[in-house]
Every structure is written in structure tokens, then in C-alpha cells.
Design goal:
The complex is a heterotrimer. Chain A is built from 10 helices and 10 strands. By secondary structure, chain A is of the alpha/beta class. The chains are: A alpha/beta, B mainly alpha, C alpha/beta.
């Protein structure tokens, strides 16, 4: 389902500048993320992939420029308005960011207990359903440290999804995972995107899975963004993109493209 | 080139004032989180367990031993003046006014406040606080405030337990070991210690020390660099800054109390 | 939050023990319990109070019955001491007040000695008969003075 037509832009960055610890991360970054699509942000380490997601989530304010999420300019919101705006955003952090003093169940139930006026029974039902979705049905009473890295990330994904957000931000969902877990999380992301029409923004340096799942690719190069529909941008032979792809190895990219014909399927 | 050292001092002062301002805003945010809904009672109970119940053993053991050694030293000092009957007074006053609140605060800083700073700092490092923010949960309200408030509430209780154990330790040495009269030990203690003058001062000190330890530990943890080095810097920084602040505050409170007497007193 | 009955119980016990320790220090050791409501207020004026402090104990026959609530200088330059006493005490108008010292160098306190009259003191009344504090320096001074006088007489 790559490219195509006039898509509604859900998240937009416009001429964003940011210095971080004296280092220039973004200098005039502009890009948009279409509604209901999977966008993958690619870039070397230090290119600002995580920072971009943090700006969309309102955790980091740009020095200059606009960050618009669903028509709201995030950088202009007060801390309290941000809490309201984040109700429709779910975020999967790189390490999972589960609270390690609480069980998996309590972690996933937390956003519901805090914001949804649901009975404990309804909460338990919603949590169990999400745990089954991510393939972790019997882990509810375990603590995060009792799970492997891949399981933790899947539990964190369940937490990001439990409030039925419109936009899900995933920071490096594949890094440090074995191929089986990469497939699993990838299939899960594609599946929720299809089923619920979520707007997904995924950062990755895992090229193969990125190319398999992406509707839209955003390359971060030298503080700027080169973005476009996945198929178009790969054909465009933009020198900055080519450089990145060559570094990662063209062979794997081609292999991945072939597979992207049938994404999904439970892993 | 004359202006350079002056400029450097100026920058340091501005930096220090900025830190102080940030700390004040942090404390105000905690205060607001305590007053405004939602109330985190269950989390407060969990923190009281971590700070209070888990510190009970070392506080009681330390208190008992300190009271015992005070009695031992005090006995040989007082017996020279034939005033060994004043042992209860001496042990009691030293424990109530100084060693109870101060040693309790130092022990609790070493055991609980440092752990508190390390926990919050590692939550910063592993993005757990950002995770809470993304779930529209204020980390000050959910994580920081229960810890800081628990520290303030627990400190006077631990300090009082330290003093009671110290009095008991002093009794063991003075009465059971050195053969003083048990009645006169307790009577001299009860007669010379006054609520408004001594016990109230002791409780006030413990409250202030609890606030210092709690706010400094949570602040250092909350503002830690998100690295392993940041976590250890927050931990050691908490022990050093909180301990020194407690000792300095102890002098200030004592001096003010001696100068002006108990607040609202005669 | 996961319910943990054992932990809740431990915290409950801890708070109980902690408050008990504070209460013991406040009531038993600190003697807060003494401040009974509706006490008998008496006033005694002394020429010399020595080191008497507010909150010093007031005793009858060695038993603590109250404390000093305030010390002021009255217009004729005597020390006006207000005592707060157990309201159930019946003290007659001939009661005398003296400032004594516990031990040689100990704290000073007010000792009351009842007389034999039928008329009782009411709250706010003044104790007529008072005995000032003995000042050690004064005593020694007087002793040396007397010794000098004795020498001269010889």
C-alpha cells in the first residue's frame, strides 16, 4: 500500500531547527507524516531520529520552527495542554520504558486507570486483550525485569496501544532484537496499522524491515529530511539516499522489497 | 583583562542562583502535586514502607548503641562531680536535641535518600519518566511527590524511635551495668526535658531534615544526566549535599531556637 | 496499584510505633500532659529570682503541681512570677512561695508551703509571703563580709 493519491497529513514538521548540547541536530527540517500510513524514519546514529519522535510527542521543544500534530502546534502548548494532546498519542520507547517497580499488568493498565473511567473488570479485559495481541498472554503478573528485551518491547507496545491512540510513535522497535522478534514486532505494527487505521511513525536503522513495512520513508541527512513514498524515493536515486542505502547494503534492500508484497501474518 | 575573574565569579553566582531557582520551582511543583488531585495514597504507603519500615532495624540498633555509649562516657564524666544521678538528663537531652534528629537524618540519607535519587535517576535514564509523560501522567505527581512526602513524614517517627531506643540503651548501661538507680535515671530525664523547649525542637528538626533529604534526593535524581555516570553522580551528590545541608540547618535551627525560643512560646 | 496486604499492615504498624514513640517523648518525657486546662493561676513577687526560668516546675512537699508561666518586672522593680497550678489544689491565703535549687548547682524551681488559714486563694490572687532565691555569690559575699567584721571586732 505504498504511496498514492492526496493523503491527509497528520503530523508535520516545518523548518525545524534544534541544537542539542552544542551540536546542531536539525537545521531547517521539514517533513510530513500522512494519516493512517506507516512512515519509517531512517538515518545514521546521531541523525536525530529519536529527537524527532520526542518533538512530535512534545518531550522536546524545537529552537525554531513548527511541529504540528493533528492541527495543534505542539511547541506552543503548555505542560498541561500537552498532557491533553498526548491522550491521542502512544509512544513505544527504545528500551520499553516500562515502570520496573510494577507488574506488566499494572504497567499496561496504568494509562487506563489514569484517564479512562473504566471498572477494574473492563480494564483487566482490555489489558488481557492487548497482551494476547502482542503475543504475551501469560506474563501479566511478571515484573518487567523477568522478561527478555523483545518481550519487554512487545509489552511496551501493548501499553502504547491500550488507549486506542490515533498516532503511535515507535523509537527503534527492532534494535538489538533477534530476527524472530523483529518479524513479530514488524507484523504486529503492520497489523494494528491495517486494522485500526493508525498513523505510525517508526524510527529504525534496520533497513530490511523498514522497507518491508513502510508506506513512506523519511531519510534524515545533515539535519534535513528527504522524504517521499517508499517506492518513489528508492527509485529517485537521490545521492543522499543512495549513500545511506549503499552503506547498509543494496542486496538486503532488494531482498526486502520482494518480501513486502505479503507483509503481516502472525509471527 | 581585569574583568575576567570578576566575570567568572559573576557567572558562578548567576549559575548558582539559577540552580536555586530551579530547585524552588521543583519544590513548588511537589507542593502543588500534593494538594491537587489525584492523590497518590497507595504510592505514598509503598514509599513509607521503603523508607520507614526498611530503615527501622538500623535506626533502632544505632539508637540503642549511641544511647549506650553516651551513658558509658557520661557516667565517668559525671561521677567526677558526684553528679551521676544526672545521667538520665544528659543522655536524654543530647539524644532529644541533637543526636536523635541529626544521626537519624544522616543514616536515612545514606540508606534511603541515596537509593531514592538513584531510582529516579535510573528512571530518567531508561526513559520511564518520559514514558509516564507520554501517557499524560505527571512524573512529579506519580513518582517524585510520594517519595519526597514519605521522607518528610517518616523522619520525625524514625527520629523519635532513635531517641527512645537511645534512652533504653542508656538505661541498660547506666542502670543494669553501672548500677545507677533506675528510678532516678528516668526521673531526671523526665524532669529536665520539656515539651515546648526540647521535644518540639527535636520534632521540628526531624521534619526540616526530612524535607531537606527528600527534596534534595528527588531533585538530584530528577535532574540527573540520562547516563550511568549521571545516576552515580545523582546518588553521591545526594549524600554529600543532603548531609551537609542537614548539619548546617541543624546549627541554624538551634541558634534561632536559643535566640527566640519556641515559636509562639512565652 | 497492586494491593499488598502484608506491606500495608507493616506500614500501619510502623506508623503506629512511630507515633507511639513521638507520644512517649511528648507526654511522658516532655511532660506535655501536665498542661491541664483551667489551671489555678497565682502570682508571686520576689526581690530576687536568681536563675528561675519560665516553665520551671512548681512543687508542694516535693511533688510537682504546676509550672511557671511568665516572669515580668513589675513597676516597683520586683520580679512578678505567674504560676499555673493544678486547679484541684486548695491553697490558703497564708501559703508561702520560695525559690529553691535542686542540688547544689541544679535547676531552680518554686516551692509552695501551705499555711493554716480557712480562706482559700482564688485564681488570679497574689501569694503574699515569698522567699527570694538564695544566690550563692551573695551568700559567699556575706560570709566573707561577716568574717571581715569578726576580724575587726577582735
Amino acid at each position: 500500500m505504498s504511496g498514492g493519491g492526496t493523503e491527509q497529513i497528520r503530523v508535520e514538521l516545518d523548518d525545524v531547527h534544534l541544537d542539542f548540547d552544542g551540536r546542531r541536530v536539525f537545521r531547517g527540517l521539514s517533513c510530513g507524516f500522512p494519516s493512517g500510513r506507516i512512515s519509517v524514519v531512517l538515518g545514521g546514529s546521531g541523525a536525530g531520529k529519536s529527537t524527532l519522535l520526542r518533538m512530535v510527542g512534545g518531550l522536546q521543544r524545537p529552537d525554531r520552527g513548527r511541529v504540528c500534530v493533528a492541527g495543534q502546534e505542539v511547541a506552543r502548548l503548555s505542560e498541561r495542554e500537552l498532557f491533553a494532546a498526548r491522550q491521542r498519542i502512544g509512544m513505544l520507547f527504545q528500551g520499553g520504558a516500562l515502570l520496573d517497580s510494577m507488574t506488566i499488568f499494572d504497567n499496561i493498565a496504568l494509562p487506563l486507570r489514569e484517564h479512562a473511567k473504566l471498572s477494574e473488570g473492563a480494564i483487566a479485559e482490555a489489558v488481557e486483550r492487548r497482551l494476547v495481541d502482542v503475543g504475551l498472554p501469560d506474563t501479566a503478573q511478571l515484573l518487567p525485569r523477568q522478561l527478555s528485551g523483545g518481550m519487554r518491547r512487545r509489552a511496551a507496545l501493548a501499553r502504547a496501544l491500550v488507549r486506542d491512540p490515533e498516532i503511535v510513535l515507535c523509537d527503534e522497535p527492532f534494535s538489538g532484537l533477534d530476527p524472530v522478534n523483529v518479524r513479530r514486532i514488524e507484523a504486529l505494527l503492520v497489523e494494528v496499522n491495517r486494522r485500526l487505521g493508525l498513523t505510525l511513525i517508526v524510527t529504525s536503522h534496520h533497513l530490511a524491515s523498514s522497507l518491508r513495512m513502510a508506506d513512506r520513508l523519511v531519510f534524515l541527512v545533515d539535519g534535513h529530511a528527504v522524504s517521499g513514498a517508499a517506492a518513489e524515493i528508492l527509485e529517485s536515486r537521490d545521492p543522499r539516499v543512495v549513500e545511506f542505502l549503499e552503506a547498509e547494503g543494496d542486496a538486503r534492500a532488494g531482498q526486502a522489497e520482494a518480501r513486502s508484497a505479503n507483509p503481516g501474518g502472525p509471527a | 583583562m581585569r574583568s575576567q575573574p570578576i566575570e567568572a565569579v559573576g557567572l558562578r553566582v548567576v549559575g548558582l542562583l539559577g540552580q536555586l531557582g530551579a530547585f524552588a520551582r521543583f519544590v513548588a511543583a511537589i507542593g502543588r502535586a500534593v494538594v491537587v488531585r489525584p492523590y497518590r495514597f497507595a504510592r505514598l504507603v509503598a514509599e513509607v514502607f521503603d523508607i520507614g519500615v526498611r530503615s527501622l532495624a538500623i535506626i533502632c540498633a544505632s539508637g540503642g548503641v549511641v544511647g549506650a555509649v553516651l551513658a558509658l562516657q557520661g557516667y565517668y564524666m559525671l561521677v567526677r562531680f558526684g553528679a551521676e544521678d544526672a545521667l538520665g538528663t544528659m543522655v536524654g537531652l543530647i539524644l532529644v536535641l541533637e543526636l536523635g534528629p541529626v544521626l537519624t537524618a544522616l543514616l536515612t540519607t545514606g540508606r534511603a535518600a541515596s537509593a531514592m535519587a538513584a531510582e529516579i535517576a535510573s528512571m530518567v535514564t531508561t526513559e520511564q519518566l518520559d514514558g509516564l509523560r507520554m501517557m499524560s501522567v505527571d512524573p512529579i505527581d506519580f513518582v517524585v511527590a510520594p517519595k519526597a512526602v514519605a521522607m518528610v513524614l517518616v523522619m520525625p517517627m524514625l527520629s523519635a524511635l532513635f531517641i527512645v531506643c537511645g534512652i533504653a540503651g542508656g538505661y541498660l548501661v547506666g542502670v543494669e551495668l553501672l548500677g545507677l538507680d533506675g528510678g532516678s535515671y528516668l526521673t531526671s530525664l523526665e524532669q529536665s526535658i520539656d515539651f515546648a523547649d526540647d521535644v518540639a525542637q527535636s520534632l521540628l528538626k526531624a521534619l526540616v531534615f526530612g524535607a531537606l533529604a527528600g527534596f534534595i534526593a528527588t531533585y538530584r535524581g530528577y535532574t540527573a544526566e540520562p547516563t550511568a555516570a549521571g545516576v552515580s553522580a545523582a546518588t553521591t551528590g545526594t549524600v554529600v549535599v543532603a548531609s551537609v545541608s542537614v548539619l548546617m540547618a541543624n546549627y541554624v535551627i538551634t541558634a534561632l531556637w536559643r535566640a527566640y525560643g519556641p515559636p509562639g512560646g512565652v | 496499584m497492586q494491593a499488598s496486604p502484608v506491606r500495608d499492615l507493616a506500614v500501619g504498624l510502623f506508623v503506629l510505633v512511630g507515633l507511639a514513640a513521638i507520644a512517649y517523648l511528648s507526654l511522658q518525657v516532655g511532660g506535655l500532659s501536665y498542661k491541664g486546662p483551667g489551671g489555678l493561676r497565682l502570682i508571686a513577687s520576689f526581690d530576687q529570682i536568681g536563675g528561675l526560668r519560665t516553665r520551671a516546675p512548681v512543687v508542694i512537699a516535693g511533688v510537682k503541681v504546676g509550672r511557671v508561666t511568665s516572669i515580668q518586672l513589675d513597676p516597683d522593680l520586683r520580679a512578678r512570677v505567674t504560676l499555673d497550678l493544678d486547679a484541684s489544689l486548695d491553697l490558703d491565703v497564708e501559703t508561702s512561695a520560695a525559690i529553691r535549687t535542686s542540688g547544689l548547682l541544679g535547676d531552680q524551681f518554686v516551692s509552695l508551703e501551705p499555711g493554716g488559714e480557712d480562706l482559700m486563694l482564688q485564681s488570679g490572687d497574689e501569694i503574699a509571703i515569698t522567699e527570694s532565691a538564695l544566690s550563692l555569690e551573695g551568700l559567699i559575699g556575706r560570709f566573707i563580709h561577716n568574717a571581715d567584721l569578726g576580724d575587726e571586732e577582735e
